[in-house]
Structure formats: C-alpha cells, structure tokens
Amino acid sequence: MIEISEAPLAGLFGSESAYQVLMYMENYENGYASQIAKTYGTSLNQIQNQLNKFEQLGLLVSRKVGTARVFYFTRSPVADSLRVFLKSMLEQLPKSIVQKFYRDRRRSLRPGKRNQ
Question: Is residue 89 one of the residues assigned to a domain?
C-alpha cells in the first residue's frame, strides 16, 4: 500500500487543525476539545473553533458529558461520505504517524468513572 503525506490533507481541509479534528474524530469516533488539542500538542482555541465550525456545518453534533462537550459525527450523506474518505486516508498514513496519534486508547478509566 502507498503511504501518503499529511500536508495535502491539511491543505484540502483548509488548516492543520481542521485536518487534525477530522482525522481524530474518524479514528476515535468521538472526542472533546482538550483531549484533541493534547493529542496533537496544539492550541485548545484552534481545536474548539474547528469543532464549533464543523458542528455549525452539520458534520458534528455534541452533547454535554459532565463539564465537557463531547463531539460525534452526524449521520448524513455528506458526513458518511467524508468518513469513508477519512478512513481510507487513515489506512494510508505512515505507520509512525498512526502509532503517534491514532493508536487505540489503552489507558483504562480512572476508578469511579464509567463509559457513558
């Protein structure tokens, strides 16, 4: 399989933070701003702006879980098609990038926490 560069994807989505949000959301299926910003070591404000933009566009929806707003992809023809594209791009990223940002979460929940 051919590996791709991240630069064209960031350009395609208009900014690196837009690219990061979409790829994170596709890989993990949901997320909140501080978690995404920490993963990439980027500005929380930039990530929040992208999440809000994608929510306004109807690609993402959010709900409050405790004090955090957790974002999810909507079910729509546009969002579903975008997800197919993002999934195929995730499969073609260099292994070093996948291991750094997109490996499965392995950390267990803190005692007293549960999945919601």
Answer: yes
